[in-house]
Amino acid sequence: MLCPFNQEGCYRMKRTKILAIAAIASLTLSGCAAQEGAGDGDVAESTNVTVAAQAWMIDKFNMSAMVDTFEADNPGKTVTLVEYADNQALSNFALQWSQGESSQDIVVTDGASVGVQFLARDLIVDFNTTDFFSGSTAKDRFIGETLAFTSLGDVQFSIPIGLETYNINANKTFFAEAGLLNADGTIPNPTDWNDVYDMAAALTVREGGAVTRPGMTIQWGPNAVSTMIAVQQAVSGTLYKSDGETLTFDTPEMREVFEIWKKGADEGVFSIDTFANKDAGRSNFNAGNLPMLLQSVSHVAEATPTIGLENGAVVAMPGSLENGSYGFTAGILVPTASTNQALALQFIKDAMMSDLQVGVGDQWGKLPVLTEHFDALDAPWRDTVYDLVKISVAAPMYRDLARIQVDGKQMLQEYLTGAMDLNTFVDGLEAMIDGADKNPL
């Protein structure tokens, strides 16, 4: 049964003011300034904080409940949520911040590593220079090395929320029907990507020669580079060339994976639905219509109400048990241009880091970042996912990471649809990465 906070009717009744915007540019207009009465210059008397987040974050992080709780505990203070489309919109924010103004007091980013691009011009707050890491949010309260996902050197450029990792989400029902389960009823972990292909092929359904249900969907949409990073780390044990700094996908292991991906895409064994709709795989898996999904393993939790707790499983893709995968969190940033920083930090500390994270983990599979909330999460997949997170790696903290993500996705899709051969694809990918700004500062 879904938690009440996710029901549409309940959501609409929230007192939170959510501003859905038609264009990102409208977020940077002075008329949308986050601070009410911004001309008085009295930061200590701030009464409103504006939080910019993507629509899925507002829903899955239960941000409406965060706002309700915070406003109830702090009479006279209000929190406004505004939606932005995707990480490409962050450049619009940065333009305004560079001019010493900010319509946002808090920005939540999809993947904390993208926040690195704002460090060079001191556009975001270093949380180590604030009193945030005290009391309930002292650094030793965060689980494991979680803070490492949102730090660079001695700079804590954002606060993590929602621990995740990429791997294979699986529905055991289909594996049972295909006779692919182990004797103990578990799904065998594939030893290499040929095994993954064979499993997906056995799970693919055809009628009259046409594929009516693919065996697997791989996230090849906007997050395609995240998928590539996850698989490269798993099969090769590193993301980098011998210099330890330059991201590469030109390894024998990854070239073999690319060839298998192309074969599977050509045959319909691996769906390309995510080209047009990044949520296609997630939606089909959550509806109980897809055997395997390579994406964030949080979808096992999401699918539970439909497929049943006993049928959701995390299957380790080849190499991930030894080498890890792509581990990540969303990142909570505070622009240095914000005139409401004190209230913003209070909202992050009291509301975003609250025990509401337990419900978020239970329903959406995004693990709490504070130990006390992680320990309170009672889910059978919790420790399996966390064990994978612990050995997984963050995306490279490059200033041009967002560009690599956009261009890399386009190149991969062109390769998978036959617009270029493997050598042209890999060579172009490497040249693009070599030419990118890989300096974080």
From TrEMBL:
<dbReference type="InterPro" id="IPR050490">
    <property type="entry name" value="Bact_solute-bd_prot1"/>
</dbReference>
<dbReference type="Pfam" id="PF13416">
    <property type="entry name" value="SBP_bac_8"/>
</dbReference>
<dbReference type="InterPro" id="IPR006059">
    <property type="entry name" value="SBP"/>
</dbReference>
<feature type="signal peptide">
    <location>
        <begin position="1"/>
        <end position="33"/>
    </location>
</feature>
<protein>
    <submittedName>
        <fullName>Carbohydrate ABC transporter substrate-binding protein</fullName>
    </submittedName>
</protein>
<keyword id="KW-0732">Signal</keyword>
